[in-house]
Amino acid sequence: MCETLASEYPKVVAAIDDRSKYNKTPWTDPAIIASSDKLAQVTWATADALELTLLPGMRESYRKPAVEYVAALRAVSVSYRDRAKDLQLNGVGSFYNSVADPVLAVCGIKG
């Protein structure tokens, strides 16, 4: 799980950073649509990759934060894919931030 997270997490960070450039941009702008679509794709793919590592017998200290992080990645993906309103995006962002640190910590990855 940690190897997958180590390889995929930088892609998520890059997609989030790119999307953050457009925080004040209306949804009608093609640049925000492209950036949001990229973020949705990257977070969904990362969630898929991490789910494949959640094997039976995995230690709970690894499993719980990984499962919660996968849930946050899915929430981010769906919210940006569906062009959610700012209030929802802010809530999803808070959820993502609250569950990212624990999974990064168990894998020894700097966030």
Write the layout of secondary structure elements.
Layout: H1 2-20, H2 30-51, H3 60-81, H4 86-107
Helix pairs in contact: 1-2, 2-3, 3-4
Could you walk me through the main structural features you see in this protein, from its secondary elements to its overall organization?
The chain is mainly α and 111 residues long. The protein has a single domain (2-107), classed as Four Helix Bundle (Hemerythrin (Met), subunit A) (Up-down Bundle). Helices cover 77% and strands 0% of the residues. It has helices spanning 2-20, 30-51, 60-81, 86-107. Helix 2 (30-51) runs antiparallel to helix 3 (60-81). The protein is elongated and about 45 Å long. The two termini are 16 Å apart. The model has no long low-confidence stretch (mean pLDDT 96).
**What structural class do the secondary elements suggest?**
mainly alpha
Overall shape:
elongated
- Shape-level CATH architecture: Up-down Bundle
Fold-level CATH name? Four Helix Bundle (Hemerythrin (Met), subunit A)
CATH C-level category: Mainly Alpha
Helices, by number, come to: 4
> Gap between N and C termini, in Å?
16 Å
Strand content: under 5%
- The amount of helix comes to over 70%
User: What Rg, in angstroms, do the CA atoms define?
Assistant: 14 Å
Number of domains: 1
Number of strands: 0
- Report the average pLDDT across residues: 96
Spell the H/E element sequence.
HHHH
Major sheet characteristics: none
Unreliable sequence segments: none
